[in-house]
Amino acid sequence: MCGIAGVVGANGVTAAQVKTMVDQIQYRGRDEQGVETLGRAVVGHARLAVVDPENGMQPMSNTDNTVWVTFNGEIYNYVELREELKAKGYKFKSRCDTEVLVHLWREEGEKMLDRLIGMFAFFIWDTKFDRGMLARDRQGIKPCFIADYQGGIAFASEMKAILSLPHMQREVNAGALKDVFAFNYCPLPQTCFKGITHLEPGCYLLFEGDKKPVKKRYWQWPFAAERKTPSFAEFEALIDDAVRMQMRFDVDGGMYLSGGVDSSVVAYHLKKQWKFPRLEAFGLNFPNQDYSEYRFSQEAAKLMDIDLSEARINPDMIPGIAEKVVYHAEQPHGDFSFFLFYLLASRANQDKKIVMFTGDGPDEALAGFRHNEQYFSQQQRMNFSLSSYFDVICYMDAPMRKRLLNPDFDRATPDPVDRFGEILDPWRELEPIEQIMAYECTSLMPGNNLVKGDRMGACWSTEGRAPLIDHRVSEMFTRLPVNQKFKDGVGKYYLKDYAATKLPHDLIFKKKTMPTLPIGEWMKTTLFDWTREAFSRMDGTYINKAAALTLLDEHKSGTHNHTRYLRTLLMSQLWLEQCVRLGATQKAA
Predict the structure, then answer these.
(1) Element holding 456 (H helix, E strand)
(2) DSSP string of 546-571, one letter each residue
(3) How far is CA 61 from CA 4, 91, 208, 562, 583, in A?
(4) Please, are residues 154 and 145 in contact by the beta-carbon 8 Å criterion?
(5) Helix (H, G, I), strand (E, B) or coil at 308
């Protein structure tokens, strides 16, 4: 976990300005910060030392200082790559994974991306040939934002770094905000800030001299590839190899254990290779046992002889951490599991653990979400409708948007169902359920689900590692036949079938749950006044204050369950307040 920032090809950018960019995200890397001016590029870095703490200062160069890199993430196969490069005569001055990038660039150029196993966003610059690239990992595990700036390109791990640049305006992207009300997050590549977009997963920007940078794609999900069902022995070997590579770190670590199939599979394989005396895990616990998965965490921990500690959450905590969650998320998300990830990372930080393993990944590639199990148990290709499915996932349908949103804002922005159609367009020849898996892998995963682990971990200087989204594992999942992903109304069938050969069947095939909060119940009681106060501050630009307050009152009375709408409205309002306040501060400065 680190932070990168910089500007390429812009006029008049100084090292001090890029240092300010780094300062905005210094919590991503509290160990060291650095800035380098490299001709037409000025780049900075905030380092969280995970491998070779003594010798990994960035931006880092090769031995003759002609190739420089600022890098966020981990290259898991760096040991193998380093040995290859050594055999070719390259000299190394550290043990860290970053250094393989500068030599691999000189050896292979942008083709180097095909060789990397890991999670990453990095900018590399070759002063000898006046060229370089900004690249992001295949699945979007690590963030990378870009913006046009003074004739060049600004980039950073977080948008607040870009927004710190002189003359960058903190303005709301109204169309993206409306998407949030429907999707519960902002689909890529747009963001809720005008002028800032994602560099999409699996892509890179190639810079050559003073030419306009060119965006290229080096990887995409193999949704249309030939189907293959690997043996359980093949799958086990691949997971073991992913864990082996991800065990390369020089700090303390542990894992998050929910007791679900994903984290249990990771725990099983991690326990076999754990290099410390004991594997320690954290699980979430709530006062409301209807929402708590902690009993499953306890069951899995006992089965695998893992030391388990709880990260407890209660409603009184929410107002005190809401502003921090919004600040670090940077965009409105109505997904309250952001709070859970924040508290888990806080608990890990409390125990001085830096690397934390997770079970992230399989739900999107294997139709693992409960609403998909329910919907596709009833659907066939002949009656699959894009709009009918969108009704299932939409958090605020058109009638409710008409009721709750400012009419001018609603009329002036596109219908989110059209945005959903655009996302699905490349995949419409696939089976219906695979169209949705394509949407979830290419949009929901990098736009929301992976954001939680990165951002909520970053603010506590912890790094998440997820063996089940090693790209080789994801490709294997994607190539499975449909009936191995979804069978007899059960999603993630192949993974569960495999896991049941290692762990009790009842633990693995229990009803799917999602990490979330009983926020709807809390909004009726403990959090009602806090929510009402936030709604009373609405200025009407985007949300109809009177309608929002009425909705909250209806929810409290029990006549309607408005949880879905209320949580998105609440987080959007908190984000808008913070956006306006920080924007005013920026203009004053």
Answers:
(1) helix 450-458
(2) HHHHHHHHHHHHTS---HHHHHHHHH
(3) 15, 12, 19, 54, 36
(4) no
(5) strand
pLDDT reading at 524 higher than 50:
yes
Tell me how far CA of residue 456 lies from CA of 344, 359, 588, in angstroms: 9, 16, 29
Contact 307, 282 (CB under 8 A): no
Report the 3 state secondary structure along 228-245.
CCCCHHHHHHHHHHHHHH
- The tokens for 97 are 């994974």
Q: Which residues contact 505 (CB under 8 A, 6 or more apart)?
A: none
Q: How many CA atoms lie within 13 A of 193 on its CB side?
A: 26
Distance set, CA 53 to CA 36, 79, 96, 97, 158 (Å):
20, 16, 8, 11, 23
What pTM was computed for the model?
0.95
- Strand-pair category, 60-61 with 32-38: unpaired
Rounded to an integer, what distance in angstroms lies between the CA atom of residue 35 and that of residue 39? Answer: 13
Query: Length of the chain in residues, anyone?
Result: 589
How far apart CA 28 and CA 345 sit, in angstroms, is 13
CA dist., res. 437 & res. 484, Å (int) = 13
| C-alpha of 339 from chain center | 14
Q: Between these two residues, 8 and 588, which has the higher pLDDT value?
A: 8
Task: Say what the pLDDT of residue 56 is.
Answer: 60
| pLDDT tens digit sequence for 59-106 | 999 999 999 999 999 999 999 999 999 999 999 988 889 999 999 999
Is the pLDDT at 589 greater than 50, yes or no?
Answer: no
Chain position carrying tokens 């921090």 = 324
User: Smallest Cα–Cα separation from 196: which of 164, 165, 166, 154?
Assistant: 154
Angle at 70 between CA 23 and CA 51, to 5 degrees: 95
Name the burial class of residue 469, with classes exposed (0-12), middle (13-18) and buried (19+) by CB atoms within 10 angstroms of its CB.
buried
Please tell me the distance from the alpha carbon of residue 389 to that of residue 379, in angstroms, as a whole number.
Answer: 10
Rg (CA), the chain: 23
Q: Is 448 helix (H, G, I), strand (E, B) or coil?
A: helix
> Is residue 374 very low, low, confident or very high in pLDDT (cuts 50, 70, 90)?
confident
Distances (CA, A) of 186 to 179, 193, 335, 509: 6, 11, 12, 32
CA distance linking residue 446 with residue 392, whole number of Å: 20
Alpha helix (H) residue ranges in 202-289 = 232-246, 261-273
Structure tokens at 248: 């390369």
b/e per residue 8-40 (b: at least 16 CB within 10 A) = bbbeebeeebbebbbebbbbbbeebbbbbebeb
Q: Which residue bears the tokens 């419409």?
A: 428
